[in-house]
Amino acid sequence: MKICFLVPDGMGLRNYMFSKLLNKFDVSDEITVMTILPEQIIDEVQNLHNRKITYRLMSRCSEAFTGKLLKETITYARLRYNTKKVKNDTIMLNWTRKNKGIKLNFFYLLASFLASFYASYKRILKLEKKYCNYLRKTAYFKQQTEVLKELNPDVIFCTHQRSIDASVITEAAKALNIPTVGAIYSWDNLPKARLLVRSKYYVVWSEFMKEEMNAYYPEIDSKNIFITGTPQFEFYFDKNLHQTREEFFKEWSLDPVRKVLCFSGNDLTFPCDDLYLQDIAEELMKMPENERPQILLRRCPVDLSGRFDKVVAKYPEIIKVSAPLWRSSKEGWDFNLPTYDDVKLLVNVALHSNAVINVGSTMAHDFAVMGKPAIYINYDQPTVKYWSAIVNNKYQHFRSMPSVSCVIWLNSKMEIIDAVKRALQEHPAELKEQQEWFKIIALHPVTEASQNIAKTIKTLATK
């Protein structure tokens, strides 16, 4: 069997190529990875799985004006449709197209204006069909058709649904009657109207996500949506990745006598993370030293801004930094690349921290795997007027919570000490609800996700 993986970004590499997924295929199966990432990544994947992987560079698709306008018009129309469907105005906040310069602002204004003429779902589908026909007439489509004829895969699996490059390759595969399978990148993606890669089949994390896809994309046959789970949570169960507490604390200069609160940062679309870290450190310093936990900062791997540096320098006795072990490509690519060492680091951050605190992050689920509570920050910074944590926590994906008590809510700076003390208790009441929430988000047992996905790929390859 010939299996071709489309890997448009570093997180697809991490969550799928570093997981046990590739081990679930027969040794005789031929695996090709098409990716925009440099060839050096294949060495680590091959060594990790002890099997040959064929590398194929995914050339970039240059979007012309017409195609981009169609795409953005569809996005805005779908966001309006989704907002009305679930009665949640925060969905429209995913249209972050302001302050891009005069020309781009006008372009996005035009797209939103045109979208007003496609308010009904039938019209959205007609526009999407027009977009699909447009893609099939591009030079890139013809080029990728020839590439696929050469590779001749039995099935194509795409690890991310938002890649324009992968979307055209998937269209080329469908034209050649090659089965196409798409993964939804994350649990919060479906309401965002960014399903660019229109595969024939999809794998999703959970029954909840399948219901979301049925709601937002009813034109996709429900029989073509498979509930498999996601492999990114399997790493936590690999004992070979676990360090001892002594090893981990020594490596990151942590005090073995004190408890650890992990502060996990978001990307730069969350502009207040450094201010929240400042608040937390300032308040925790008011606690008696023998009760005061230490903070382990885990910034987002793509956040290279240095915005935490001043806070860390101000509170060196309480804040320690476990910087993500991603690397820059030596080939001049404008990418940060995940490493398997960083997978190990994240596993041990969750294993040896007592709780996590952040603004609405998926890390609440990572910590739920390890039986650790999460604190969600739910107050705004007075100096930042254009963004709100309170609004962020009303996003559609948080409606998946079975109750409001799935996390410990931090509603003001004055509540920091009490929230942290609650999280650091032996068995905080919210933890059970947090783990129930995780069962809604990801199919259990989560250790079987790779097997489920591989089985689905094999089955669909023979259709």
Q: What features would you describe in this structure?
A:
The chain is of the alpha/beta class. The protein has helices at residues 10-17, 40-49, 65-86, 102-115, 121-135, 139-151, 164-175, 207-216, 245-251, 273-284, 309-314, 340-352, 363-369, 389-392, 416-423, 430-441, 449-461; strands at residues 2-7, 30-35, 54-57, 155-158, 180-183, 201-204, 225-227, 260-264, 294-298, 319-321, 327-328, 336-337, 355-358, 374-377, 408-410. It folds into three domains: 2-61 and 138-230 and 446-461, Rossmann fold (3-Layer(aba) Sandwich); 65-133, no CATH class; 235-441, Rossmann fold (3-Layer(aba) Sandwich), CATH 3.40.50. It contains 17 helices and 15 strands. The strands form three sheets. The chain has a seven-stranded parallel β-sheet, with helices on both faces. Strands 10-9-8-13-14-15 form a six-stranded parallel β-sheet, with helices on both faces. Helix 3 packs across helix 4. The mean pLDDT is 95.
- CATH architecture of the largest domain, please? 3-Layer(aba) Sandwich
Mean pLDDT: 95
Largest sheet: 7 strands, parallel
Structural class: alpha/beta
Poorly predicted runs are: none
- Spatial extent as radius of gyration: 23 Å
**Main CATH class of the largest domain:** Alpha Beta
According to DSSP, the number of beta strands is 15
CATH superfamily of the largest domain: Glycogen Phosphorylase B
| Large-scale geometry | globular
Helix fraction bin: 40-55%
Spatial gap, N to C terminus: 13 Å
Number of domains: 3
CATH topology of the largest domain: Rossmann fold
Order of adjacent strands in the largest pleated sheet? 3-2-1-4-5-6-7
